[in-house]
Structure formats: structure tokens, C-alpha cells
């Protein structure tokens, strides 16, 4: 098991660094360089590490990359998140959604109607801009910083062109709050009388995959009970785990 853990640490280091010498890897994983060389030799023999591209340097091998790609191809994100959506609908009685980013909007790819109220907003295939609605705001808040800044710049252009986009400070304050508490709240900004809570979903590389949200009558969703925010965050965490998100990975 210790060898597997050490090998995993080297693989993780190469994922982060890209390419490195044996000494650099030894320093990163806190192992003697002699042990690191032996592990690298073993990983090279099965094609998980490549040392042929540049003398003295190592990087992830083609075989390892192919395995990762096949795993991702086989994972249907929507299917992997279904159990979390079912649980969220059951625990809240409200409508549960799964949304993915599409440009500067979020599109609904799954919707499980609740028992209490059925809003016509965000049917399958519908979309909302990333500045409106619980799932879109959760996606916006947890985008990598560079992508998020690019979106905010485009929103500024749309605002100048007359679109009813919230002000830059309003959006940035909302993003800071969402990131601090781990979830977003939509308080009648999509449909009067309807509230929603959203939380981000991450994949096995720690990248933002989308967001889960739950929507219903405003007082029931925002004021509870139950604690809908906690249930939504837990559902998003369950969906992320189903996609392979684990300890040691950080969202951006």
C-alpha cells in the first residue's frame, strides 16, 4: 500500500507540474531521490510515466493519459449526478436541477419536478445567464479566476449595450459571498414567489463541472425548515464524489 501511495503522489505531482526531474519530484513528494528513481522506473515500464521526450525529465505517459480519457468518456455526468438529485428532491419536496455552463449562460440538462410547486422556468434545455438564478450564479462564482474575469468583462459590455445586467460590484460581492459559504441563493430574481439554492459540482480533476440547484416556494426554500442550503451543498458534494472528486483536490 505504501508503494501505491508513493506512486500516486508522483502521478499527482506530475499532473500539477507537467514535467520534472527525479530530484524535483523527490523534493515534492518528500522521498529520497533513490526511491523516487525506482518508482519512476516502475511507472515508466507500464507506460504511466514517459522519460524519452527530454533527457533527465519525466512527465505523464501516453498510456496513463489514455486511461484517464477513457474513464472520463465513460462517465456520464448526468447519470452520475442522478442519485444526488433524487435525494435532494426527496428531502426538500422541491424541484431539483442539474445545469452545465454554455458560454455565458447555464443550461438545464436534468430536472426532477418536486411535489409542491412546478415553475415553468428552466425546463430541460432552457438556459439563464450566469448572473441570474441559483445554479448559474454558483457556476459563475466557482469558475477559474481567469474565466470568471473574462465573463465579467463581457457582462460589462452587455451592460453598456443596455442589457439589464447587475452592476459589477453587485456581481463581485455576490461571488465573494457564494464562494465564502459554498452555495448561491436566488431570491425571486427569476420567478416571483420562487426561491432557489445552488451549489457547484466538480469532476475527478477538481474542475468545475456544473451546478445542482433546488427551487420552490420562496419561504420554504430560503427560510425552511428543512435547511435547504445544507441539503443542496450535500447533494452537490455527493454528485462530485460520484464524478471522482476527492480529497487533495481544490476548486479554483
TrEMBL record:
Record domain IclR-ED: where: 63-245
Keyword line: DNA-binding, Transcription, Transcription regulation
Database matches in SUPFAM superfamilies: GAF domain-like, Winged helix' DNA-binding domain
Keyword ATP-binding among UniProt keywords: no
Top-level taxon of origin: Bacteria
This protein's record includes keyword Ubl conjugation: no
Any Gene Ontology biological process: negative regulation of DNA-templated transcription
UniProt domain HTH iclR-type: residue ranges: 1-62
InterPro entries in UniProt: GAF-like_dom_sf, HTH_MetabolicPath_Reg, Tscrpt_reg_IclR_C, Tscrpt_reg_IclR_N, WH-like_DNA-bd_sf, WH_DNA-bd_sf
A GO molecular-function descriptor: DNA binding
Record-linked PANTHER family: HELIX-TURN-HELIX TRANSCRIPTIONAL REGULATOR, ICLR FAMILY (PTHR30136), HTH-TYPE TRANSCRIPTIONAL REGULATOR RV1719 (PTHR30136:SF35)
Name of this chain's protein: IclR family transcriptional regulator
